[in-house]
Design goal:
The complex is a heterodimer of chains A (282) and B (300). Chain A is mostly helical and 282 residues long. Chain A contains 14 helices and no strands. Chain A has helices spanning 3-31, 35-40, 53-60, 72-102, 108-120, 124-137, 143-166, 171-179, 184-192, 197-213, 216-221, 229-238, 246-266, 268-280. Chain A is globular. Chain B is mainly α and 300 residues long. Chain B has a single domain (69-298), classed as MetI-like fold. Helices cover 74% and strands 0% of the residues of chain B. The longest helix of chain B has 43 residues, at 2-44. Classes of the chains: A mainly alpha (282), B mainly alpha (300). At the A-B interface, helix 1, helix 4, helix 5, helix 6 and helix 7 of A face helix 1, helix 3, helix 4, helix 5 and helix 6 of B. Chain B: This is Sugar ABC transporter permease. Chain B: It is a multi-pass membrane protein. Chain B: Keywords: Cell membrane, Membrane, Transmembrane, Transmembrane helix, Transport.
């Protein structure tokens, strides 16, 4: 390729990079500016004096409606929802994928195809029946209600991930183990699971980001003490009492995005694989 | 004799064990998918208002849905948003993927930069863009302070333009992901085809236009499917960026459903609107799943 074309290619790629980085830059710099500087300065200016006051406020004393305890309680709610929901749905997906590939039975393919639709179904369809069901189960006001919903709605995608991964593991491994007298669980535990690290990572990241970033279920099914971080952030930003503090809003947005960003940075390879696997194969 | 009997029942148990293990999650997910679809469908034909009411009233709720001006706004917005979100997202993603495919030095870093928005929730994204697009401090203010005093950019608070700000934030969020899909597709293309075309004297843009892009058809198919599916479901971004406003000018089917079912006490209309969303989604997903599953059979 000619030198001039290469130059253009690099320029375009760099401009694109600036476009993608702009919101992150603006969020970060705004969050460490004072309100005076925000009012008088420019959007892109680097802060004259760096202050983490807005971060402290966003975390523990900003108002989200009538309550003024910052994002802290919401953050911990999200942790309490995400941890059990991710572990449970990943475990169920692993076992389901194992049965669907190594212990196929009559009708298992049909059930799998039917479950696949659950990955795509608009969740609005389940909102009304689900809120009734959670009410009957007495789970509407607790984090366990959201854990239940996320596990139920996550089974389809976790099963899909493990199913697609286990298909590529030779059946002969399982057959040989059966001849040696190994049972159902022993084969799973000793043969399949030790080979599953990559797909466990993918499923874990997929479920973690989806559940952490969920807003719809959070806003519909949570009670006053079980609202997740996305709902907390939205309430904080839309609270109209008092002077609007953009630096606090931006700090809050970063706090809400931090856990998934950390995963993206630490396990980027698996993150991309999860995205594309979830996309191309359903 | 006794041991033989035991081994028979043992064998039967072994046969049933896998089924028993998956039964709960199969049954639960089928109930929570299809059972709830039917339940929600029934609600849409019921007299439900503030509370569920299982009296059958026929298509009354659908009539009031289609008579509702707000539902038409939501559909029109879905058309605008969906069209631009899919179109711009696909073109931008493909364009970046092609550029990145030219043996670029910092490819890994650039790829990570393009893709990171996908890790963030739409609520975070919406909050950030709401600040950037805010007329009094954001882009408009910035351009004016740079000397472009006539520059106006008040789309966020302009009810005719606000839906386009949702497009900006939506494209920002997901085009990197489209880029990743196309890049994977490009890497899967056999180099020798391109080499052969080059030997024949074809220029690089021509090779892309005539050979490479056409061979990416399956990737286009998945990409458009996924983006359409995201567009129909999009709720968080609207709620965070514009909160359906100004007025209800940026309402979309998903936020319409939420408003009716959980704010206005119109459960029946809400159920009817979600049934319509299901129909739209099924129209694009069922053919896709069908072809994917046929693929599974072919590949064993």
């Amino acid at each position: 390729m000619a030198k001039s074309t290469r130059f253009i290619v690099y320029t375009v790629l760099l401009i694109a990079a600036l476009f993608y980085l702009l919101p992150m830059y603006v969020m970060l710099t705004t969050s460490i500016k004072s309100m005076d500087e925000i009012r008088n300065g420019s959007l892109l200016a680097f802060p004259a004096a760096i202050s983490f006051e807005a971060w402290g406020k966003a975390w523990s004393s900003a108002c989200t409606g009538i309550e003024c305890s910052g994002l802290k309680p919401f953050f911990w709610n999200s942790v309490k929802i995400v941890v059990p929901a991710v572990i449970l749905s990943t475990m169920l997906g692993a076992v389901n994928g194992y049965v669907l590939t190594k212990w196929k039975f009559k009708g298992s393919d049909i059930i799998f195809s039917m479950m696949l639709f659950g990955v795509f179904m608009p969740l609005q369809v389940v909102l009304l029946p689900m809120s009734q069901t959670l009410g009957w189960m007495g789970l509407t006001e607790s984090v366990w209600g959201l854990v239940t919903v996320h596990v139920l709605m996550g089974i389809a995608s976790t099963t899909l991930f493990f199913r697609n991964y286990y298909v590529s593991i030779p059946d002969e491994l399982v057959k040989a183990a059966t001849l040696d007298g190994a049972g159902f669980f022993r084969i799973f535990w000793r043969i399949l699971l030790p080979l599953s690290t990559p797909i466990i990572m993918v499923t874990f990241i997929w479920q973690f980001t989806n559940i952490w970033n969920d807003f719809l279920f959070g806003v519909v099914f949570s009670g006053s003490d079980s609202k997740p971080i996305t709902v907390g952030l939205n309430n904080l930003v839309n609270t109209s009492t008092g002077v609007k503090e953009y630096n606090v809003d931006m700090a809050a947005a970063i706090i809400a995005g931090l856990p998934t960003m950390i995963i993206y940075i630490v396990a980027g390879k698996y993150f991309v694989r999860g995205l594309t696997a979830g996309a191309v194969k359903g | 004799m006794a041991t033989q009997k035991q081994s028979v029942s043992q064998k039967r148990f072994d046969e049933w064990l896998p089924k028993l293990v998956v039964a709960p999650s199969f049954i639960l997910s089928l109930i929570f998918i299809y059972g709830f679809i039917i339940w929600n469908g029934y609600l849409s034909f019921s007299a439900s208002r503030m509370l569920p009411n299982y009296e059958w009233v026929g298509i009354v709720q659908y009539q009031s849905l289609w008579d509702n001006d707000r539902w038409w706004v939501a559909l029109k917005n879905l058309g605008i948003f969906g069209g631009l979100f899919i179109g711009v997202g696909t073109v931008l993603g493909l364009f970046l993927a092609i550029l990145l495919d030219q043996k670029i030095r910092a490819e890994g870093a650039l790829r990570s930069i393009y893709l990171y928005p996908m890790a963030l929730s739409f609520i975070v994204t919406g909050t950030a863009w709401k600040w950037i697009l805010n007329p009094s401090f954001g882009l408009e203010h910035l351009m004016q302070s740079w000397g472009f005093t006539n520059f106006t950019f008040d789309w966020l608070v302009n009810s005719d333009k606000a839906i386009y700000t949702v497009v900006i934030a939506g494209v920002w969020q997901s085009s990197g992901f489209v880029m990743a899909l196309f890049l994977a597709g490009l890497r899967g293309i056999d180099d020798s085809i391109i080499k052969a075309a080059q030997v024949d004297g074809a220029s690089l843009p021509r090779i892309y236009w005539r050979i490479i892009i056409p061979s990416l058809r399956p990737v286009f198919f998945s990409t458009i499917m996924i983006l359409a599916h995201l567009a129909i479901k999009s709720f968080d971004l609207v709620m965070a960026l514009t909160n359906r406003g100004p007025g209800y000018s940026t309402d979309m089917p998903a936020s319409f459903m939420y408003t009716m079912a959980f704010e206005r006490g119109q459960l029946g209309v809400g159920a009817a609107s979600s049934t319509m969303m299901l129909a739209m989604l099924a129209a694009i997903v069922v053919p896709y799943l069908y072809s994917e599953l046929r693929g599974y059979k072919k590949n064993g």
